[in-house]
Amino acid sequence: MSFGIVATLGKLAAWLTVLLATAPIMLWVERRGSALIQDRRGPNRVGPLGLFQGLADAVKFLFKEDIVPAGADRPLYLLAPILALVPALTTFVVIPFGPVVEVGGRAVNLIVAGVDTGVLLLLALASLGVYSLVMAGYSSNNKYSLLGAVRASAQMISYELALTLSVVAVLIPVGSFRLDEVVAAQQGTWFGFVPQWNVAPQIVGFIVFLVAAFAETNRLPFDLPEAESELVAGYHTEYSSMKFALFFMGEYMSMATLSALAATLYFGGWHLPGIDYSGPWAWVALKGLTVLVAKIAVFMLFFVWVRWSFPRFRFDQLMRLGWKVLLPLAIFNLVAIAALTVAGVL
Q1: Rounded-to-10 torsion of CA 156, 162, 163, 169
Q2: Is 270 within 8 Å of 98 (Cβ atoms)?
Q3: Does residue 32 sit within a domain?
Q4: What is the crossing angle of helices 3-37 and 74-90, to 10°?
């Protein structure tokens, strides 16, 4: 086996470990966090502080009866949960988690797929997520599932525009689609101690990206495709057992991927001022991955805090926010950043 294949498999293993650990960890964090916010105890029976609750839920899903509705379109019904995981498990390949390191005399870039069209590939793969929701709602032969699928498609397509424009605005000063170059452009400091992160000059774009990320992951206050009081459970009403668990995992993994993208675009990615990234390659890779995972964790905690602190929007409010507020803001931010770049300010 060649050195390149071994290096790629190693980088894949590092990212998959982070992604696969996201769902069980966030399941516990979500439940304990909501309990803390609502002055409850939360899960505290399975293991110390309820830490094994995620494992107990996984076992429960494995042993629950797997039901397929008699009137369902079976091929699409079975394919939809698998497709829910595809964007989350593929978009991370263009996100760097460390600098270029030397392994056995060879330079290894700590990014799974260091392609020149990195951001375009990420956005293209992320856009596939809407297909799983539409397929799930259509194939279930359930009116509530279909309504959830229609809502999901309208919502995700609407907010993808604003999200994409905010990402493009970050790329303009860098002049590259590669996320490792975006990270490199943020490694300086202002006044000797303030990190030169994009969040300061592009605060408008960051706010647009953050709000659109909530809508793209169907998280409160934008969880209209699965509003319990209106649609029972929305697009996954007819799913049970491990098929439902796959939708569950896909949502948390998508949150992690968008959090990693936000950290990379606006908060310096794997880099943190004051940390020495020299030394053995394994130690350097571990430091870079740890910094990036810590930033992802902060964003994930923010997702949880917002979910249990704000009420759900009405659907007309959600669409109005996307088309009449976020999209104009994203266009304004794009034009302003382009003008500042041409003027040499950025």
Answers
A1: 160
A2: yes
A3: yes
A4: 100
> Whole-angstrom Cα distance, residue 93 to residue 160?
20
Domain carrying residue 171: 3-38+67-342
Tell me, yes or no, whether 53 lies in a domain. Answer: no
- In whole angstroms, what is the distance from residue 282 CA to residue 41 CA? 40
Residue 130 lies in a domain: yes
- Give Cα separations from 81 to 27, 182, 282 (angstroms): 19, 33, 36
- For residue 104, give the nearest of 3, 235, 251, 227 by alpha carbon: 3
Q: Which residue has the tokens 């270029």?
A: 100
Helices (H), the chain: 3-37, 53-63, 74-90, 118-126, 129-139, 143-174, 179-184, 203-216, 228-231, 241-266, 281-307, 315-320, 327-342
- Helix or strand run (H / E) with residue 213: helix 203-216
**Residue whose tokens read 């829910």:** 84
Q: Do residues 109 and 94 touch, judged by C-beta distance below 8 A?
A: no
Query: What is the chain's pLDDT, residue by residue, as a tens digit (346 residues)?
Result: 687 788 888 888 888 888 888 888 888 898 888 898 888 888 888 888 888 888 888 888 888 888 888 888 888 998 898 888 888 888 888 899 888 888 877 888 888 887 888 888 888 888 888 888 889 888 988 888 888 888 888 888 889 999 999 999 999 999 889 999 999 999 888 877 888 999 989 999 999 999 999 998 888 888 887 777 677 777 888 888 888 888 888 888 889 999 999 999 999 999 988 888 888 888 988 999 999 999 999 999 999 999 888 888 888 899 999 999 999 999 999 999 999 999 988 7
Secondary structure class of 47 (helix, strand, coil) = coil
> What predicted TM-score, i.e. pTM, was given to this entire model?
0.92
Does some domain include residue 292?
yes
d(CA 96, CA 110): 6
**Sign of the CA dihedral with 180 first, then 160, 256, and 335 last:** positive
Q: What is the separation of C-alpha 74 from the centre of its chain, rounded to a whole number of angstroms?
A: 29
Which one-letter amino acid corresponds to residue 63?
Answer: F
Tally of domains within the chain: 1
Write the single-letter amino acid at 159: Y
Q: Which two tokens stand for residue 244?
A: 């439902």
